[in-house]
């Protein structure tokens, strides 16, 4: 990203808060099935394996919860990008190596129904963040390294 905290638009914040609530509920459900660790360990190996799987799932959920909480906390202190600088929420026109131009919107969360959306953590999104008109960026694609030039930032 730009090296500093990135803002989150209102729609993305709602989605992150919704996911956070769902993850917390799921974690509480999984945690309720775990033994306290010091209790009777008389179950067979299948019971012990199931317990380990639930503990791993609880760890995974806790990790994602921490990630979202950190992102929301970071966003709460972030200032919007400077005028003319690409940031989350910016609309950017880029010219690719083959001469085609495309306008994309930098967003926090992916949306399969919006082909003009690029997430800030995608290769192109990362390359564009913090850049301005006239800057050329390099990023990785499945076909190899590619470059694009920022035409304008809206």
Automatic annotation (TrEMBL):
Q: Where is the Transcription elongation factor GreA/GreB N-terminal domain?
A: 12-77
GO molecular-function annotation terms? Answer: DNA binding; kinase activity; RNA polymerase binding
- Renumbered to this chain, the Basic and acidic residues biased-composition regions fall at 42-58
Provide a GO biological process annotation: regulation of DNA-templated transcription elongation
In terms of InterPro entries, this protein maps to: GreA/GreB_C_sf (IPR036953), Tscrpt_elong_fac_GreA/B_C (IPR001437), Tscrpt_elong_fac_GreA/B_fam (IPR023459), Tscrpt_elong_fac_GreA/B_N (IPR022691)
Q: Which UniProt keywords apply?
A: Kinase, Transcription, Transcription regulation, Transferase
Domain Transcription elongation factor GreA/GreB C-terminal per the UniProt entry, residue ranges: 83-153
Keyword Magnesium attributed: no
Which NCBIfam families does the UniProt entry name for this protein?
PRK05892.1 (NF004548)
**PANTHER family named in the record:** TRANSCRIPTION ELONGATION FACTOR GREA (PTHR30437:SF4)
The protein's name in its UniProt record: Nucleoside diphosphate kinase regulator
Q: Which organism is it from?
A: Streptomyces cinereoruber
Tell me the classification of the organism that encodes this protein: Bacteria, Bacillati, Actinomycetota, Actinomycetes, Kitasatosporales
């Amino acid at each position: 990203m730009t090296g500093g905290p990135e803002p989150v638009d209102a729609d993305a914040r709602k989605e992150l808060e919704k996911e956070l609530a769902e993850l917390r509920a799921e974690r509480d459900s999984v945690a309720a099935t775990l033994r306290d660790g010091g209790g009777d360990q008389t179950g067979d190996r299948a019971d012990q394996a199931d317990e380990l799987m639930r503990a791993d799932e609880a760890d995974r959920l806790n990790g994602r919860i921490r990630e979202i909480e950190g992102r929301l906390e970071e966003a709460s202190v972030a200032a919007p990008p400077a005028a003319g600088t690409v940031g989350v929420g910016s609309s950017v026109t880029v010219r690719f190596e083959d001469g085609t131009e495309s306008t994309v919107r930098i967003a926090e969360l992916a949306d399969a129904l919006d082909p003009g959306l690029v997430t800030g953590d995608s290769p192109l999104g990362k390359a564009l963040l913090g850049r301005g008109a006239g800057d050329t960026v390099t990023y990785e694609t499945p076909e190899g390294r590619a470059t694009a030039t920022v035409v304008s930032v809206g």
